[in-house]
Design brief:
Helix content of chain A: under 10%
Oligomer: heterodimer
Helix content of chain B: under 10%
Shape of chain A: globular
Structural class of chain B: mainly beta
Shape of chain B: globular
Distance between the termini of chain B: 37 Å
Strand content of chain A: over 45%
Distance between the termini of chain A: 41 Å
Number of helices of chain B: 0
Number of strands of chain A: 11
Order of helices and strands of chain B: EEEEEEEEEEE
Number of strands of chain B: 11
Largest sheet of chain A: 6 strands, mixed
Largest sheet of chain B: 7 strands, mixed
Largest interface: A-B, 22 and 24 residues
Structural class of chain A: mainly beta
């Protein structure tokens, strides 16, 4: 069975500072991994995904994530936070018995301080 | 762009009512999903469907049912609403094909309050 752990339910950074949101997963098969972002009162939208190939994945809005198999991690980073990055971020893993289901982490709320 | 449309943004219902939440997608996706989102619990899968008239239970199906009579439409039904079903409900769809395979596209959500 798949599972996702997001370390830190709330992360606060200053504008211009590095953003690091942590995600660890467990999967019985090679994982497909995703980061989604949810702005207030909206649905989720895809930031980036890892399937196969290059382990450093670039997404929208300057975010990127690195797949580290040995650490079972897929942490999300952005070099310089903007106020507009304030949102909730969800890590998800796909795979296992069903090819359709995503298992989500519980989310990390990112606050950006001026 | 993929569009997933949920029929209502906000709903207020009374305990015991039968509630229908509707979701429509315009990209001919094979798969559709219903989640509920609660603070501190993330997204939990209620039901999903991988084809017309096909459905599978997710992690928390109790108290819910679904209907998929047409490929573009996936309905979530609360047979007898209870206060513990007050939540944000999110619909999503995904394709089995192409570059966007397995990417789930979400609607804006329906915030349901059961009084």
């Amino acid at each position: 069975a798949q599972s996702v752990t997001q370390l830190g339910s709330h992360v606060s950074v200053s504008e211009g500072a590095l953003v690091l949101l942590r995600c660890n997963y467990s999967s019985s098969v090679p994982p497909y991994l995703f980061w989604y972002v949810q702005y207030p009162n909206q649905g989720l939208q895809l930031l980036l995904k890892y399937t196969t190939g290059a382990t450093l994945v670039k997404g929208i809005n300057g975010f990127e994530a690195e797949f580290k198999k040995s650490e079972t991690s897929f942490h999300l980073t952005k070099p310089s936070a903007h106020m507009s990055d304030a949102a909730e971020y969800f890590c998800a893993v796909l795979g296992g018995g069903s090819n359709y289901k995503l298992t989500f982490g519980k989310g990390t709320l990112l606050t950006v301080n001026p | 762009d993929v569009k997933v449309t949920q029929s209502s943004r906000y709903l207020v219902k009374r305990t015991g009512e039968k509630v229908f939440l509707e979701c429509v997608q315009d990209m001919d996706h094979e798969n559709m999903f219903w989640y509920r989102q609660d603070p501190g619990l993330g997204l939990r899968l209620i039901y999903f469907s991988y084809d017309v008239k096909m459905k599978e239970k997710g992690d928390i199906p109790e108290g819910y049912s679904v209907s998929r009579e047409k490929k573009e439409r996936f309905s979530l039904i609360l047979e007898s609403a209870s206060t513990n079903q007050t939540s944000m409900y999110l619909c999503a769809s995904s394709s089995d094909r192409g570059l966007s395979k397995n990417i789930q596209y979400f609607g804006a959500g329906t915030r349901l309050s059961v009084l």
